[in-house]
Specification:
479 residues, alpha/beta, c-terminal autoproteolytic domain of nucleoporin nup98, Rossmann fold, 7-stranded antiparallel β-sheet, 16 helices, 34% helix, globular
Length: 479
């Protein structure tokens, strides 16, 4: 598979892929070797090629016990097209070799990673079950111009089941790679490994912002999950929930006055999400913060509250999800705000586990319900990027209190509050983490509870305020 760009300087593609154009990069895969190389690399045009060299013997002998491959019967396990045609093996290689690029993360070119650039993708041989006309049905709704040319058989026997796939469009590189990660095995309609329930999470993460609204989402979901009906049903239910949330947000935005951002009705009961935002805003005001980062801002609920308060003179919302930033932009109605208001707020696409110079020098940073979405091995990178590199005067962190989950119906016997949570801390675990981070990066920390305080479990949300140049008193109070 090759990916080309004419964005100038085109060699910045190497920064986005985190692979230097002057070298050949190799990565060991379970069934062979993956290589990344650059057939051309000039300021005007740059092409990166991902080549997967499959060892058929390793493919068969390395298969896990119980895993059933699509060609596992008879000679099919030895004689097949896997070494010669793009398949889920190439998608897996793409996911491992370009992991940072798939997340939209680039420590060297963060602004470019968030920018749509001219791209051309070529996959010379791809099995296309359903005919060449299926490829445009899958890629065209995503902004691509698609060409799927059937590859003819020898001696006039007609067309084979393989196509040469070419895509052209102006997209973010991360979006392009996620489209390929999902849709290459969908067109091939086969997986080289046993599809387990965690494959749903892979699909939903890679399909964020585009799959829920895709006209062929049912076909994509069934094929990506190897036609396992239970898994496909669960995945489609999650996608339907995403569509419902987006539809509700659209209705909410339509009800707003287009020239103002309305404050919430004070008479209505305050849900926990609102109480969290109020606690964060109160802490920011107490700290006297004027320049504020909302890290992992999501669809912009806290940003809307910050914009309403004139004491916050510079506000930056940062998130790895471009879809969330698009929703935040709509929620804030940035295109309709007066110029002076518009200058106060900026939205940045960035990964919080990478250092980003654009996030340095602020009075305060907020991580509201963010840390629990980070894989534990990546927490140290987030700590370094936020507390070490961005190094604001204050950092405000909220996270669920796992002990309180027994008070929620459906969580009394275990489980977490959101399917994307990687962990949820007890009060002792949160205290240990916050004390360690404060000591490591030179902050003092105070902890609070947000929400109704339960005498046995504590409050539903934990809240830590890290500050510099204050005595490290620690401790825990209820708020």
């Amino acid at each position: 598979m090759t990916v080309s760009t004419t964005h100038v300087p085109a060699t910045d593609l190497g920064f986005l892929l985190v692979k230097h154009p002057d070298r050949v990069h190799a990565l060991e895969m379970p069934a062979g070797q993956a290589y990344v190389m650059y057939p051309e690399a000039t300021a005007q045009r740059c092409t990166a090629a991902l080549v997967l060299d499959i060892d058929p013997h390793a493919l068969h002998s390395g298969r896990k016990r119980g895993a059933k491959a699509p060609d596992s019967a008879g000679l099919g396990q030895y004689v097949n097209d896997r070494p010669y045609a793009a398949s889920s093996m190439l998608a897996s290689a793409l996911g491992k070799v370009f992991r940072s690029a798939l997340r939209g993360a680039s420590k060297d070119r963060p602004e470019l990673a968030a920018t749509a650039i001219p791209l051309e993708v070529a996959v010379p041989v791809l099995r296309c079950r359903g005919g060449a006309e299926l490829a445009p049905r899958l890629f065209d709704p995503l902004g691509w111009t698609t060409s799927a040319t059937p590859i003819p058989l020898d001696d006039g026997w007609g067309d084979s089941r393989y196509v040469e796939l070419r895509l052209t469009g102006t997209l973010r590189l991360a979006d392009a790679l996620n489209h390929l990660y999902v849709l290459l095995p969908v067109l091939d309609d086969a997986k080289h490994y046993w599809v387990a329930p965690d494959e749903i999470d892979k699909l939903v993460r890679a399909g964020e912002g585009w799959l829920a609204g895709h006209p062929e989402r049912a076909l994509i979901t069934r094929r990506f999950l190897a036609h396992r009906r239970a898994l496909a049903g669960a995945a489609l239910a999650r996608l339907a929930e995403e569509r419902r949330r987006l539809a509700e947000l659209d209705e909410e935005l339509e009800e707003l006055d287009p020239d103002t951002i309305e404050a919430p009705d004070a008479e209505k009961p305050q849900p926990l999400a609102v109480r969290r935002r109020e606690a964060v805003l109160a802490a920011l005001r107490e700290l006297g913060a004027a320049r504020v980062l909302d890290l992992g801002c999501g669809p912009g609920a806290l940003l809307a509250d910050l914009v309403r308060d004139r004491r916050f003179t510079e506000i930056v919302g940062a998130d790895v999800s471009t879809r969330s930033l698009e929703i935040a932009e709509r929620r804030l109605r940035l295109d309709r705000l007066p110029d002076r208001q518009r200058e106060r707020i900026k939205l940045r696409q960035t990964a919080l586990t990478y250092r980003d110079d654009r996030l340095r020098g602020f009075d305060a940073a907020v991580l509201m319900e963010v840390v629990e979405h980070v894989d534990p091995p990546r927490l140290a990178a987030l700590e370094d990027a936020v507390f070490g590199h961005a190094a604001p005067h204050a950092v405000l962190v909220t996270t669920p209190n796992a002990e309180y989950n027994v008070r929620y119906e459906g969580l009394a016997h275990g489980g977490m509050r959101h399917h994307d949570h990687r962990f949820e801390w007890t009060r002792d675990e949160f205290a240990a983490w916050s004390d360690r981070v404060a000591g490591l990066y030179g902050y003092a920390v105070r902890r609070y509870g947000i929400g109704d305080d339960d005498p046995e479990t504590g409050s539903p949300t934990q809240f830590a305020v890290f500050t510099r140049d204050e005595p490290a008193t620690g401790g825990e109070v209820s708020a």
